[in-house]
Amino acid sequence: MLVGSSYFYFRHQLSRLTRLDIPGLVEDDKGSVMNVLLVGSDSRENTTGDIADATGKGDDGTTGQRSDTIMVLHIDPNSGRAAILSIPRDLFVPIPGTGGRDKVNASFSSGGPQLLIRTIKEALGIEINHYVEVDFTGVERIVNAIGGIKVYADAPARDEMTGLDIPQVGCNELDGYQALAYVRSRYYETWERGRWVSGTNSDIDRIGRQQDFIRRMMKKAISSGLSNPLTLNRLIGIGVDNVRVDQAMSTKDITTVARRFRSIDPDTVDMLTLPTSDGYIGGAAVQLLDAAQAQQYIDRLNGIAPPPPAAPAILPSSIAVQVLNGNGGDASATVAAAALAQAGFHVASTGNALSFDYARTIVQYAPGQQAKAAVVSTTLAAGAKVEEDRTLVGADVTVVLGLDYTGLRATTPAVTAAPSSTQAPGATTPTSKAPAPNC
């Protein structure tokens, strides 16, 4: 009875989430990949006291909201894997309906979630199924609700704009205020050799810290939050006050995502970042998309399987060849063997065939050596008939010279072995660097 009451209570709480009517979302189908756009909004609407300081001292008087953090949570039910793709907020892209280009977060500040989703779809080709937005106060309250977060620092660090203060090397416990200052930091400095040193790239560096922070928060929430009814109730209450979702995201969708993450090791969640390079437009620092490198990430999010891996080239030196005279020519096996050796093949032996009446050259291969036979046959100028010889020993391939043998091609064609297996969708997609040391 108590379990049933709790279930309906949680469903009731989740139903109270603020929901937004957002055209342009793609309906998610059961069994297909799901992409949830996660936006950390820098809205100051609910910020008071210390938390207001962590929003950035240089932001005094700021009104409205911008997409301070943009990520896509990708869930693939077929592989049972999840990924989070970070989109740099300084990514310079065309903004639909404006006829111009700007940083991607400008689409959110001028047109809200709908324009941001449209921009991501048209500029990047990523389909979005659902939308979740959390404000500054929500980040602080979530961290405090799960008892803080420990992060690892290679050196003492600070950000005078957000109030970040990491005093020591190693693991540092962050409360909600410091956690917000950490994930928002764009002027991150480390204490090295007696002086404060600034980071090299504020947008990309910050994404790395955010991804490490999210992984750690997932671990903490799963271990001490989602399994504790009281903590879970507090988290849901925070969601009601500080999280907004799209109207089509049902309570079932939310609980499905929550259950999925309870069964996923956070260390196996791929943390990805769109590949970019530094640029300057109108005097402002921006990130320019590397479209060729980014396509593999975009395909993965859209559920498009990557091409099979390129098969390794088979080198002639790895092929042991036996050459037999089957045409009756004077020393034809010796001459052909010398040519094959000159082309890089390993000649195991030479000799005569059972007869000299072979009209067609034959390339015979030992079991499992068909790919090597293909390399040899394509090297012969007149080609050859290829067949298996289950009794062949002492060589990978036997060349029985026929009357059609005219020597080798001028250049040896590049031949590759067939791949031994097919990779599962997403299996070859690169991931980000390994997580920082555990705390």
Question: What are its keywords?
Answer:
439 residues; alpha/beta; Aminopeptidase; Alpha-Beta Plaits; 2 domains; five-stranded mixed beta sheet; 11 helices
Q: Which consecutive residue ranges, at least 5 long each, have pLDDT under 50?
A: 57-63, 419-432
Counting DSSP E segments of at least 2 residues, the number of strands comes to 22
- What share of the residues lie within helices? 25-40%
Mean pLDDT: 85
Total helical segments: 11
The CATH superfamily name of the largest domain is LCP protein
Oligomeric state, counting identical vs distinct chains: single chain
How many domains in all?
A: 2
Q: The CATH topology of the largest domain is what?
A: Aminopeptidase
Task: Describe the largest sheet.
Answer: 7 strands, mixed
**Architecture of the largest domain in CATH?**
3-Layer(aba) Sandwich
Query: How would you write the strand order of the largest sheet?
Result: 1-14-7-2-3-4-15
